[in-house]
Design brief:
Radius of gyration of chain A: 22 Å
Largest sheet of chain A: 7 strands, mixed
EC number (chains A, B, C, D): 2.6.1.76
Oligomer: homotetramer
Strand order of the largest sheet of chain A: 5-13-12-11-8-6-7
InterPro entries (chains A, B, C, D): Aminotrans_3, Aminotrans_3_PPA_site, Dat, Ectoine_EctB, PyrdxlP-dep_Trfase, PyrdxlP-dep_Trfase_major, PyrdxlP-dep_Trfase_small
Distance between the termini of chain A: 18 Å
Number of helices of chain A: 14
Strand content of chain A: 15-25%
Keywords (chains A, B, C, D): Aminotransferase, Pyridoxal phosphate, Transferase
Largest interface: C-D, 113 and 112 residues
Cofactor (chains A, B, C, D): pyridoxal 5'-phosphate
Protein name (chains A, B, C, D): Diaminobutyrate--2-oxoglutarate transaminase
Chain lengths: 425, 425, 425, 425
């Protein structure tokens, strides 16, 4: 009881002065002060293991020492902080490094657009350019997709609570079944039928937009074969393929781009979150040169030139100079999978189901409200993780990619304990 | 000629790797490296006077020393950099300082929402909550308004090039004449007539959104009396008044909020750009408590917790602890006005017209392409300023508010000289 | 009281079996049985003078003897009744007569489209073809316009009750002020300003649609000069001009087309109501040959071939073989105007205002509900006339064009008496 | 060749004066003059057997003698021809007869709305009231549905040519697979999954609208079991079920309403085409009393009171006083099916597939353009029938229900012969 009171006092400023829209500060009612690697500490000095990574923004961990140093050095030299899309040295160096370390080795040819520093801005720009170059307006998105909160991105987002928040109907989009969305049914056949029939009521779309692993939608990982077939549909009907790699990209699934194992080449790729290295706002839209038909300033924004982010972003790309980082992620992913399977087996009451790919995994808990209770209990015990899915039914594992075995084991132990506690009630 | 070749080489990376959407780097073809106060330097060591201020983002000047120190100190302490909307110390301190220094002294009562770090995100959230609390979908915006590039914000933006870029029709909005938009016509009478008549074809709107000075639309400053009448219309028909103070706020016109001299109290206020102090991405949506009807997470975003921005933002609020800063801005504004009037008088060929308010002024040049040519010439001579207006017909003055008399005089001298050069051809 | 009970019994079938949407049968609670010329009789043998003409559908009066005979003869010969858009003799003869009697003498060149037998179908087809040939989607309509109840036509209709009935937002249209809609303001200047400014927020429209006299919207007659200026705007910006002559056409204002006195040539004209001669469902869309870019069947409908209507329609065109009918209408119109002015002068309590043109006139009564009370009282006394306007504030005079002086005098006497009665309460 | 020239001369008026939108007069290039029962004659006296029935409008045959007499008698008595929704004797008698002969015996309870005399008007009114009573805006329609050409009805229509003709995007609708639309896939499972998942991107709809047999979409007959399941979905999620029975109703499939054999009770039923008995424009919207929440005049239209149609409609209902008519239709349907199967067997080159139900049958011909060629050849030989389906791939049999065995045999012989001719080329 005493704890609760203290906790309430701690949060008083937020409750009194901030809007009712605040969410994470409700589930994790403390004031955080410090962070390093895969750990955070609050103002009371309590330590937390991070299985959340800023919703996928802190793939390289908190306060990477190298990035910190480069940022500080730049500030001390009176480097340009804000530059819209003017030329600056950090922008130039980031562009060159991205080309050299990421695009060229993967045999990818994209023009880089800085669309404003948020993921939703990248998605909005991707939809715009796809509509412009095709002259069509419809976009196919998928069930349980999440692409952002501004009206364009919301229109391709599945979640009804978030859609309803728009306050206006959302148009120019068709929602199609993601991979094995409907049991025993073939979503590819379904999509193809609608496209081939001129009487289907679904217009030939400008683009198909997808996440290879749906992060907010319940850690639904598309099969590589399904992704290949979607790409084939795009090629057959001359539809642009947009991969929203905002959460699943930047190494989250084991490769820099999440779509690499499928061997596909999207026409447009959206990146944000961890692209800024250390959690600073930044986003990119990658566009195949033949589709880069923008007029100058046709999509713009004030914070396209966040130079501190460019500096950290360039340092982050160093992780990708060799294959080592990628193979480490995959090893850790296997370890997670083993632990998750054990937990599911240990607690049949969860009616649990393992989901995901790479370091983007989850346990779907098919009992109402249980996933939320588990996360709450874990927070109390020093583990930060959140739920996902249309009914918050999935416990989601999204640790910094630099987490070590000790961190994983410790976090999983807290989780195990939390589940036991919740189920014992 | 040699210079041109060098310049081209300098920009090669951007031209080769970046999308065709880039704009400022075309008009100002150099690579910037350093900045302080109201000055920038490029990689060749050339100095520029800044009459642009990051499009209104650098009201407190480049690299404010105090803000630099606080940011560096925070990073060195491994402070949380990225926190979504979790509680952190900088968020808490910013909220408290904003309440104490800005809201309370102005007798304003708003809940503070962090909607994502861009202006357009603030506008999107404002439109959403206005639609939610009223249950209506139409929003009235104004001719030559600019509110952002995501679909919701674009729908209340006037510029046809930018609207067309949406690739889809933009709905749920009605464009009304801004102040004296139609010569010799009373825009208030029009708006009232449309609202009072149930057969007008214009539905009762959820909100009226406006900029008190239209920055992108041509430095059109609304008269205080017109703003008062708009507020009266909102009260009479129970319409929410949204002031988009993203460019005109944070002291740009002489007071913290641009609407203060009109004595109005908007229901919702959008802030971004200079709120982050030193050019770091940040935005706020201020909502009267009675309209703060959000569900938790109903509008969210990854970069709502840019703690470096919170730290700089808090320091920036210190400028507002006394009235001195405000009165200095107004003095500088007068100086600008004097210089502008002189230039207009000196060069009748410009067919010039003075516009604006505070340190947000402009010269409308009623000769095709002339404004752009002047800005290009000024850049060559070390002055950064851009055009504005539907046909880029306005030379826009938007210096850092901390500029001194020397800076103003020097910049204006370059401008004078540039105009002379352009006209002599 | 006894009367009321009897009347209720008479209406029982409608009240019990018909939908709540019924309207005229509420205001005129009787069962009509017979009609001829400008008179109707109900099942009780009560006689009514018709100042309503089926809302402008019975311009040639009820049961024109000649039309009756031709219809009966056709049926007796087993003529084709229903033919979609197949070739039939009545369709052929109507087309030839319409060309010869109406189009050629007026030097008008239009292709004739049969869009389905209702006015709203004509409007929907006009909007479609205008959007197709221009490739634009916006249509400018006017305050207090009424163009029909299907979604396309509703979107260009002003009335908020009817718009709200759509159940979905209505888009792709901009409502502009009709003629002198806002007192002392120049609507032409207003419209031109929005069109010439690329930052106005109003896209270049496909078409401007208007009624020269707004029937449902309050009998607002546009000045000829205003119509000319609207046509000039259309020519200047290459916008199609659509005149919806469904209610004001077919002689209602004194000439066959209502726009003839303005000397304008619309690109598209919508006709319905009295085009079918004797009240049978029929509609036309007239399209300048250069804009007749339909694909076969691109707009169709089951009842495009109502041959009984074609037969009556052809007979009706005989009225237009000389100028006599037109000049008679204008004489009667003058008589109405004299009587209306007298009534307004006689009853200052009405705060009355004369409106309209030709045999489409009205008295705007600026006292709440008074117009409706007057119409109710008149019905009891054997005069059928209805209200119009956004608040049902206009008593509307729309007699069959074939009415004679006796009918006018008798009807006006009943009206005078009814007003006296209503005011005396 | 001579014939062709004559034929061209005959059609000259239509080609010269009518819009390019005309369609049937292109496929059947003659001028029709007379008709009776299941036969038509053109101006040259050539006789045609009618397997088309005015696209389902002439179920009771051409010029039914009894209906002719009643209509003539009414006209001769100066009966009211046009009455909007005023009370008239024919309206009253139709309402009472419809209640007595159709609704009461089938244990159906509907309020009758007269929405304007066309099918599309009935559909528009159905969508409006469904949106009003549920407060939702989305409507689920089906692949290859056809519901009309006005914007509201087009939005629930599948055909891309017709949708494209709208000139504006069509919204507020979701197209779902009709019955066995996707081979080997369960459309019910798809629909249920989309509805039960709050993250599906498909909002809870106001209504589901369907045709039990899709006439324009290719004579696709839904299975009774599928219809039952759709009704169950409607009940489970509180969605209104609208059956568009405009083409399949009025006995076309063997029962008055096409949905009777499925044992379902739609919330709203749209009727038009044959409801007017002899081809006169008329439509009804039947609404369960609990959903009849219209305000007076909220949906209206000029030609809601086509009294000649009411008179014929009342006579037509006599056909339904006993079960005989229904059982005759079913016998004829069987005869058609036998003949169709024979033709498919006889001409394997057609790759033919039998479709449909009752006297609404078809042969899908899976060879490009063959169906159209067959219909053209048949017309030359005196048989009128048209194609259907997204690619005009279905030869459609839609004879008047009163056709006799001789007519069927004779028509089928012509068809057989026409196919032989077409295939022999």
């Amino acid at each position: 009881m005493t704890t609760a009171v203290i906790s309430n006092n701690k949060m008083e400023t937020f409750e009194k002065l901030e809007s009712a829209v605040r969410s994470y500060s409700r589930g994790w009612p403390t004031v955080f002060e410090k962070s390093k690697g895969y750990k955070l500490w609050d103002v009371d000095g309590k330590e937390y293991i991070d299985f959340f990574a800023g919703a996928g923004t802190l793939n390289y961990g908190h306060n990477d020492t190298n990035m910190q140093e480069k940022i500080i050095e730049y500030i001390q030299q009176d480097g340009i902080l804000h530059s819209l899309d003017m030329g600056t040295t950090p922008r130039k160096e980031f562009l060159e490094t991205f080309q050299e370390v990421i695009l060229t080795p993967r045999n990818l040819d994209y023009k880089v657009m800085f669309p404003g520093p948020t993921g939703t801005n990248s998605v909005e720009s991707a939809l715009k350019i796809a509509r412009k170059v095709t002259g069509r307006d419809t976009v196919i998105s998928f069930t349980n997709a999440f692409h952002g909160m501004t009206i364009g991105s919301l229109s391709v987002t599945g979640n009804s609570f978030k859609r309803h928040g728009a306050g206006v109907p959302l148009h120019h989009t068709v929602s199609m079944p993601f991979d094995d969305y409907v049991e025993d049914q073939n979503s590819i056949a379904y999509i193809e039928r609608f496209l081939e029939d001129s009487g289907s009521g679904v217009a030939l779309p400008a683009a198909i937009i997808l996440e290879t692993v749906q992060g907010e939608g319940g850690i639904n990982a598309a099969r590589m074969d399904w992704l290949k077939k979607i790409e084939r549909i795009c090629r057959r009907w001359d539809i642009l393929l947009i991969v929203d790699d905002i959460q699943a990209g930047c190494g989250r699934t084991g490769t820099f781009f999440s779509f690499e194992p499928a061997g596909i080449k999207p026409d447009i790729v959206c990146l944000s979150k961890s692209i800024g290295g250390v959690g600073l706002p930044m986003a990119l839209t990658l566009i195949k040169p033949e589709y880069d038909k923008w007029g100058p300033g046709e999509h713009n924004g004030t914070f396209r030139g966040n130079n501190l982010a460019f500096i950290a972003a360039k340092e982050a790309l160093r992780f990708w100079e060799t294959d080592q980082f990628s193979s480490e992620i995959q090893d850790k992913a296997k370890l997670y999978k083993v632990k998750i399977d054990k937990i599911i087996a240990k607690y049949p009451e969860l009616n649990g189901e393992a989901r995901g790919r790479g370091l983007m995994q989850g346990i779907a808990v098919h009992v109402d409200d249980l996933a939320s209770k588990i996360c709450t209990k874990a927070f109390e015990r020093g583990l930060i993780l959140e739920t996902s899915g249309p009914n918050d039914e999935v416990v989601k594992f999204l640790p910094p990619l630099i987490i070590d075995e000790e961190g994983i084991m410790k976090g999983m132990a807290i989780l195990d304990d939390s589940i036991a506690q919740v189920l014992s009630k």
